[in-house]
Predict the structure.
Amino acid sequence: MNYTTLCDWHKLHHEKALFGRYITTSHIQPLIDQLPELFQVKSLGYSVEKRLIQSVTFGTGPIQILGWSQMHGNESTTTKALFDLFRWFATHQDQTEVKHLLNACTFTMIPLLNPDGAEAYTRVNANQVDLNRDAQNLTQPESSILKEAYTSIKPDYCLNLHGQRTIFGVGSPAKSAIVSFLSPSQDELRTVTASRKIGMSVISDLNEMLQQFIPGSVGRYDDGFNLNCVGDTLQQLNIPTILFEAGHFPGDYEREQTRCFMFLSLIRVFESVLLLKSEEIGDSNSYFAIPENKKCYFDCIIRNVNIPQIGVTDMAIQYEETLKNGTLYFVPKIAQIADLDDFVGHKELNFHQKEIQIPEGMQLEVGTNLENLQANSNLPTTFSVKSNNLL
Ligand SMILES: [Zn+2]
């Protein structure tokens, strides 16, 4: 496929009913209800708070691909990408290449596995359980629904679709980790097994494709083994599983750019899978050549600022995503006050040892909410965080 053409298509024709970070059942249900004939919708069960969890299946081929998004309720970028993908398949199903995909594969996607977490904009479900640590104990209905799905479908490949925070960078000097991937381990030794190798091979293809759009901004996620994670569990069952982490494109807190890269990556996975011949898979080197994610970013760093009682230092600010009355706000809070030479800010300011003016009685310390500081201080307007989704 021509990925530049796909990217152009995405700019114009992505699912516009979905926008921003706060994506819930009420946003996606009308879209699921209107899916054309190509798609079969199945009810899989209910969340703790009795929200419906559904799957969308399309294609008729023997290769079974199972994906799920928003297992962490506040990681919605890949959900948007899935609905873009549905639109793309619906409008391109008569094209030879697409027909080929649909005849070779059966795709089953669960767009919203944790609807209660999505509603509350939290990582965890309504019982405060991280579903990605519940793969063995299966204490939650959402975990059982996913297990039932992979037990009945017997997927050849799984796609575990997530989003990552703005703190991750790759390379040196670091660039934002706009997208990261992982072929999870299936044992403590992180052995490169046949199943892992297949995932690695697919991820290498993804990386190669993405480099033309976001050079130096693709990361490899930490492969520490934890059987309570779904990916590790599936990999241990010898089902190649690919973890997607949608990250931060500079300036794009809505994750509308990253959404496009996720869309392209999904299509690239399907293409890769079709081309895979197990005897040919042997190259894990290009996978390991992808730089590992490191925690080296803050949303904002103010350098060389003179803080009363502390002196000249650096100050890092991290936005706390906060849901209030159905609207998501990005609340700036002090994350660190220290020498931050080893860190990068998505936004950087240099105070050149100038004192920061703060209202009387305000303390600058880790955790301080800076929402109202700008109006009352000498912070320049470039720092401005107008909440309400738009920065
Ligand atoms: Zn996640």
Q: What stands out?
A: Residues 384-391 have pLDDT under 50 and may be disordered.
